[in-house]
Amino acid sequence: MAQARRIKKKPPAKSKKNRRAGSIPWGLLLVVLVTGIILGKLIAGAQHDGDGLGSGLRALIDNIGSEPIDDDEAIAELIEEKSTEKEFDFYLVLPDIEQVMPDDLPEAAPSRKDDSLVYYVQAASFRQQADAEKLRARLALKGFKSITQARTSVETGTFYRVRLGPYEDRRKAKTAKNKLQHVGVRPMVYSVKKES
């Protein structure tokens, strides 16, 4: 004779109604917190002059709606109109620790790495810091990470140089120079003695 089987009732599944109302998942809370910190840093950097996070944001905001930022011709035009490189001789202005590297360096010749030097690629030099920041912002949109360096001289005053680097190897600096030339910049490579 067949026995009857008892079927146990399953406990009801937890529904969303049973969860605490208004609880936020920890992952979402962490994403919101990190996003808020990053936005705060960007806004603070845009409000203050300096080389920190968001320093190029002010130049981007000022240029909204004025002209297309991503245009190579605009970069070349900015350098042609505002750059001061054609106004003075770099050999007189730069200190003795910096030397301009010639364009015709041999490619195939193996060279010994000089650990006492680092290399910078200077994109342009401006009298106004706003022009330097505008170029930095445009170069950032092209994928270049650059810095603005203020240089004051008794004879010529203050200039704001837009530079890429430092590079430990001269070939890496020359590669960066060639990439900058493709976006309309006339860069120069400098070697600088490392600080001890």
Automatic annotation (TrEMBL):
Residues in SPOR domain copies: 113-192
SUPFAM superfamilies in the record: Sporulation related repeat (SSF110997)
Keyword Membrane attributed: yes
Name of the protein this chain belongs to: Sporulation related protein
Region (Disordered): 1-20
GO annotations of cellular component type: cell division site; cell septum
Pfam families associated with the record: SPOR
Gene Ontology biological-process entries: cytokinetic process
InterPro entries from the UniProt entry: Cell_div_SPOR-domain, SPOR-like_dom, SPOR-like_sf
Transmembrane segments: 21-43
Alphabetic keyword roster: Membrane, Transmembrane, Transmembrane helix
Domain of life of the organism encoding this protein: Bacteria
GO molecular function: peptidoglycan binding
